[in-house]
Amino acid sequence: MNKMHVKKGMNLLICLVLIFGIGSGGFIPEAVKAADDPNAVDPFDSLSNKLGLVPGHALEENTDDPHIAAYKGKAGTAITLTPIFYDTNDQVVNNLSYSNITWQASGAGARVDENGVLTTTSVGIVTITVKITSSIDGKTQKSASTKIKMEHVPVDQISINNVNMTDKPDTNAFIEITSGEELDLNTVTKVVSNSGFDPTYQKITWKIDRSDPKLSYSRVTARDPETKVETGYADQSSDATLRNGIISATYRGQFVLQATIDKGAVGEKQLTKYIVVKVNYEAVGSIDVLVTKVSANIPTQIIGVPKGIRSADPTFREIEWSIRRVGTTGA
């Protein structure tokens, strides 16, 4: 039995030698060959400094003027870069084993992170440089570079709360706010390009346009100057305010809001859009009285909290108190 086990073990060892070619020049992984064989050629030795990139979203080969840049990209849109390496014969090097890849970018406000994601803030030429380290000896380093021509992507539309702004003020294109409340334009505004890419320039300069009194006005209560009795309503210039992208108005009415993006239009021209903002009045629906019991001969402050019909914040909150049915209290 012992001899049979020994025989089977030797047969197994022979089979392993035949299969893997141990000691007979059989199959050995290329990386092992390069590491053990001093005559083996490390692919790193044949690399050139030419860098290729895999075309993808917002990135393509530049066939128009390749002498300026090998690739074209969409400025403002994030691009994931995938490298292609070439040898000195301008042939693609496949199955290259490398590690510690680092990216660098310069020009057109470019930045590239450790994952090769490129972002730009303007048009222009971006130089991309990548450095890699050989996985075979862990020491050899190579650098390669290329250029990308970042092209302008114009703005096609600006919308607020999903309502598109127009090329000139139009009362059919409007949004609504409640008087006394604020609307943060920074959170409800979208800047869009129909190309499917992000517009290159998206910074908006806001302005309240009061040039047309028929479109921008506040409707306030008119009173007799002597009796102070209400006589109706009067329109005056809009009291709307704009600060850090936040709009508000005290009185009901409407006003025109203007948005401007420098270099936002086709040909990097200035883009200007408008929208009418209608200011609705929020009436007081109720007043919560916080003090309901009053003690004799003790001054008591009565606090009231007005609440609107649609919201907790009515347009006017100032309360004018008066006493009715004094009776025998002497109030």
Question: Could you walk me through the main structural features you see in this protein, from its secondary elements to its overall organization?
Answer:
With 331 residues, the protein is mainly beta. It folds into 4 domains: 38 residues, no CATH class; 111 residues, Immunoglobulin-like, CATH 2.60.40.10; 125 residues; 49 residues, no CATH class. The strands form 7 sheets. Strands 13, 16, 17, 18, 21 and 22 form a 6-stranded mixed sheet that branches. It has a 5-stranded mixed sheet with strand order 2-3-10-9-6, with no helix packed on it. It is elongated, with a radius of gyration of 37 Å.
The CA-CA distance between the termini, in Å, is 120 Å
Number of helices: 3
When the domains are counted, the total is: 4
Mean pLDDT level: 83
The helical percent reads under 10%
Envelope shape: elongated
> How many individual β-strands?
24
Weakly predicted, low-confidence segments: 1-35
Rg, please? 37 Å
Oligomer type = single chain
Instruction: Name the structural class.
Output: mainly beta
**SSE sequence, one letter per element:** HHEEEEEEEEEEEEEEHEEEEEEEEEE
- Proportion of beta-strand residues: 35-45%
